[in-house]
Automatic annotation (TrEMBL), chain A:
<feature type="transmembrane region" description="Helical">
    <location>
        <begin position="128"/>
        <end position="148"/>
    </location>
</feature>
<dbReference type="GO" id="GO:0005886">
    <property type="term" value="C:plasma membrane"/>
</dbReference>
<feature type="transmembrane region" description="Helical">
    <location>
        <begin position="32"/>
        <end position="62"/>
    </location>
</feature>
<comment type="similarity">
    <text>Belongs to the binding-protein-dependent transport system permease family.</text>
</comment>
<feature type="transmembrane region" description="Helical">
    <location>
        <begin position="288"/>
        <end position="307"/>
    </location>
</feature>
<feature type="transmembrane region" description="Helical">
    <location>
        <begin position="179"/>
        <end position="202"/>
    </location>
</feature>
<protein>
    <submittedName>
        <fullName>Sugar ABC transporter permease</fullName>
    </submittedName>
</protein>
<dbReference type="InterPro" id="IPR035906">
    <property type="entry name" value="MetI-like_sf"/>
</dbReference>
<dbReference type="InterPro" id="IPR051393">
    <property type="entry name" value="ABC_transporter_permease"/>
</dbReference>
Automatic annotation (TrEMBL), chain B:
<dbReference type="GO" id="GO:0055085">
    <property type="term" value="P:transmembrane transport"/>
</dbReference>
<dbReference type="GO" id="GO:0005886">
    <property type="term" value="C:plasma membrane"/>
</dbReference>
<keyword id="KW-1133">Transmembrane helix</keyword>
<keyword id="KW-0813">Transport</keyword>
<dbReference type="InterPro" id="IPR000515">
    <property type="entry name" value="MetI-like"/>
</dbReference>
<feature type="transmembrane region" description="Helical">
    <location>
        <begin position="80"/>
        <end position="99"/>
    </location>
</feature>
<dbReference type="Pfam" id="PF00528">
    <property type="entry name" value="BPD_transp_1"/>
</dbReference>
<keyword id="KW-0472">Membrane</keyword>
<feature type="transmembrane region" description="Helical">
    <location>
        <begin position="242"/>
        <end position="263"/>
    </location>
</feature>
Length: 313, 278
């Protein structure tokens, strides 16, 4: 901008005007070209993503069953959250699922990444094998999971039985309210740890090897190197993995629908399951959107806290 | 003894043992699936497990095609996946070019709009989105699922990050040579962005192929169903036909397995780069 005015003031008046006009036209033209690049994606994105997001915030303060007239509800849906026992269960189950599965998945992924960052034979095969559950169809693997963990006939309990576990105290897995959450968490860890392993592998490869050489000179052992070189150097990766895992855990649904249907009782009912039930089973669209807002603020809150902590470090 | 040029020490042995053990645990469900798919339903739970069935029931793989319209489900899913992936690749790389290499008013505000929704779970707005589609008369159509998955913020973000790493001088040189922006995108940026395009292809392919909740909400007619909800329907209808269920599951896994194995080199690199830059 500064350059163009200096250049313009040196030229005679009529020529300058022509130049300014043509420059403005050029700029409008450039902008139109740019918008034409964005338009195909942005129009779809605005209609099918941004619009519904804004609508969700409005709908949370409405009563609507999807067919009769929509009416203003004020804070009715909000107060209902506190009286709804299923919501309370869903909220705490989601928290439990997240608090357990995030650190377990993270630790497994990091451990695997360190193992498979060594120079070993068949490394690519092992990496691919670890990653495969992540891309495999969830419906197909969940049905296998149900069969393997079948309390009466499944091989897992059969093995526990041959190991001498009392048949009376056998875990009931998906059919037992104390074990259902464990079953679902185990499944989640198994399915997604390969994905986060790959992200950690990339992080490990980004660490400067001189740091390890310096640690060697200082006489550090393997554990100390892990603690004082690897872990701090992986800080940004761990931050990214934690955010991704937390969001993924908050919105868990498919595997629970497939393995336990939220049961037994409400022992594995989670927020998205409750949103689904309220919307597509009870057709209480306003209330389901209010639960969705809780999910939204949960995700937002965690992301903000983690960004803050990241900045402090 | 030496393996991969290293002396076999106790430490190395421990590493191999651990890696092999974990790999077995990771792959065991798939082995079980494959083995059970070749058994009679009455043999599936026999213990100790007979990993290689003595009398393989190949008939299971014949029967599944007539018990449910499996071929139709696969056709529906392939159609959806291919259309969504192509649209995603085109619209994302097209928009990403403007965000990375062009200047225009409200660029940052628009980009912020995309970024802000990346972390927003789809589940937060799936209900209003369903109501909107219903308003457009799109429920029980494949078009609804295409509209829902073809324009993601993630795609634009991923492509833009990659384009940022391509030197702007390349575009300027092309402009001096008389290329317009569309030509620069088609002839310079696209050929250079193969790694990013492969990553986006795999992500979109896998997500669309394996999507469950979307098709479950939108598609209630059997003839429209995708392989995932078709398989789910099969499981609830024939819940005791273990051998058949496993055979159908194996069939549902194969397309993803092929795509994954053929592109896995890109996949690992792509996940890594999108993760670190994210």
């Amino acid at each position: 901008m500064a350059n163009s005015t200096v250049a313009a003031s040196d030229t005679p008046v009529p020529a300058r005007r022509r130049k300014v006009v043509s420059r403005r036209r050029r700029r409008v033209q450039d902008a139109l070209v740019a918008y034409s690049f964005i338009a195909p994606n942005f129009l779809g994105f605005a209609v099918f993503t941004l619009g519904p997001i804004l609508f969700a915030f409005v709908l949370a303060f409405m009563h609507w069953d999807g067919s009769n007239a929509i009416t203003f509800a004020g804070l009715d849906n909000f107060w209902r959250l506190f009286e709804d026992k299923a919501f309370k269960d869903a909220f705490w189950n989601t928290i439990v699922y997240t608090v357990v599965s995030v650190p377990v998945t993270l630790a497994c992924a990091l451990g695997l990444a360190i193992l498979l960052n060594q120079k070993i034979l068949g490394r690519d095969f092992f990496r691919t094998a670890m990653f495969f559950p992540y891309v495999a169809s969830l419906v197909a693997v969940a049905v296998v999971w149900n069969m393997i963990f079948n309390p009466e006939m499944g091989p897992v309990n059969m093995i526990l039985y041959t190991l001498g576990l009392d048949p009376q105290n056998m875990p009931g897995w998906a059919a037992d309210r104390h074990w259902a959450m464990v079953t679902v968490i185990l499944f989640g860890v198994w399915k997604s740890m390969g994905y986060f392993m790959v992200i950690y592998l990339a992080g490990l490869q980004g660490i400067n090897s001189e740091l390890y050489e310096a640690a060697d000179l200082d006489g550090a052992n393997a554990w100390q190197k892990f603690l004082y070189v690897t872990v701090p150097q992986l800080g940004p990766t761990t931050f990214f993995v934690t955010v991704m895992l937390t969001i993924q855990s908050f919105k868990v649904f498919d595997q629970i629908y497939m393995i336990t249907q939220g049961g037994p009782g409400t022992s594995t009912l989670v927020l998205v399951y409750h949103i689904y039930n309220e919307a597509f089973i009870s057709w209480d669209l306003g209330y389901s959107s209010m639960i969705a807002l809780v999910l939204f603020f949960l995700v937002l809150g965690v992301t903000v806290i983690q960004f803050r902590r990241q900045k402090e470090d | 003894m030496r393996i991969a040029g290293q002396k076999l020490t106790g430490k190395l042995f421990a590493i191999y043992a651990t890696v092999i053990l974990i790999t077995i645990v990771m792959l065991l469900p798939f082995a079980w699936m494959l083995s059970a798919s070749l058994k009679l339903s009455s043999e599936v739970f026999v213990f100790p497990i007979e990993w290689i069935p003595s009398k393989p029931q190949w008939q299971n793989y014949v029967d599944i095609w007539t018990k449910i319209p499996l071929a139709l489900f696969i056709y529906n899913t392939s159609k959806l996946t291919i259309i969504v992936t192509l649209m995603q690749l085109f619209t994302s790389s097209f928009a990403a070019y403007a965000f990375a290499k062009l200047e225009f008013p409200y660029k940052n505000a628009l980009f912020l709009g995309y970024i802000a929704t990346i972390a927003m779970p789809w589940q937060v707005y799936m209900v209003p989105q369903f109501l909107l589609m219903r308003e457009f008369g799109l429920n029980n159509t494949h078009l609804a699922l295409i509209c829902l998955q073809a324009f993601t913020a993630f795609g634009v973000f991923l492509m833009r990050q990659f384009y940022m790493s391509i030197p702007t001088e390349l575009c300027e040189a092309a402009r001096i040579d008389g290329m317009n922006e569309y030509q620069i995108w088609a002839k310079i940026m696209l050929p250079l962005s193969k790694p990013a395009l492969s990553t986006l292809t795999i992500f979109t392919f896998v997500t669309t192929w394996n999507d469950f909740l979307g098709p479950m909400i939108y598609l209630t007619k059997t003839e429209l169903k995708t392989i995932q909800i078709g398989l789910r329907m099969f499981i609830s209808q024939y819940s005791a036909e273990y051998g058949l269920i496993m055979a159908a599951s194996v069939v549902a896994l194969i397309p993803v397995l092929i795509v994954f194995l053929s592109l896995q080199r890109f996949f690992v690199e792509g996940v890594a780069s999108s993760g670190i830059k994210g």
